[in-house]
Amino acid sequence: MISRPGFILTLLLLFLVSAGHAETFSGTVTRIFDGDTVEIETLGKLRLLGIDTPEREDSNRDKFYQRWHIPPRRLRAIHRQARQFNQQALKGKKVTIEYDKGNRDPYDRLLAYLYLPDGRMLNRLLIEMGLATVFRRYDFSRRREFLQTEKEAREKRIGLWE
């Protein structure tokens, strides 16, 4: 028989151990909105955490890319490439998602890392391919890793960085 303080200590230790592990879920991708937003059956709309892909049309968000001297025509082409890649890699496939700090954005979309059926993380893969940049407005646990990946894509001059 465990004493009351021992029971409370055991519960606290279990909580602390489980808090270090990310929450993961699986689901089937039912819709691709664009390069960084998809729909997952039973979970709803999901925004890929920590990345941003160009919009379909010219917008105020293009200002970020202007500092890199990326012309609007190139942004629209990258938008199409990212969306097409997601269509081929995700549509109808079962994926795993992993939550990080705060799992909803201001538009009530889930925020998560998405893992392809082969285990690769889509968020990072899109940055590696030069189809996405790091979303710098909010903090997330893989920020340093993503910034390094973006730097490497720029140095290789691929995708957005050609």
Description:
Helix content is 38%, strand content 20%. It contains five helices and seven strands, in the order H-E-E-E-E-H-H-E-E-H-E-H. The radius of gyration is 19 Å and the shape is globular. Strand 2 and strand 3 form a beta hairpin. About 9% of the residues have low confidence. The chain is of the alpha+beta class. The protein has a single domain, classed as OB fold (Dihydrolipoamide Acetyltransferase, E2P), CATH 2.40.50. The strands form two sheets. Strands 1-2-3-6-5 form a five-stranded mixed beta barrel. A two-stranded antiparallel sheet has the order 4-7.
Question: What oligomeric assembly is this protein in?
Answer: single chain
Average pLDDT, all residues: 87
Indicate the structural class.
Answer: alpha+beta
If classified by CATH, what would the architecture be? Beta Barrel
In whole angstroms, how far apart are the ends? 67 Å
What's the total number of strands? 7
The SSE string, one letter per element, is HEEEEHHEEHEH
Give the strand line-up of the largest sheet. 1-2-3-6-5
What is the domain tally?
1
Report the C-alpha radius of gyration, rounded.
Answer: 19 Å
**What does the overall shape look like?**
globular
User: What is the helix content?
Assistant: 25-40%
Task: Determine the strand fraction and express it as a percent band.
Answer: 15-25%
CATH class: Mainly Beta
Poorly predicted residue ranges: 6-20
- The helix count comes to 5
Largest pleated sheet: 5 strands, mixed, barrel
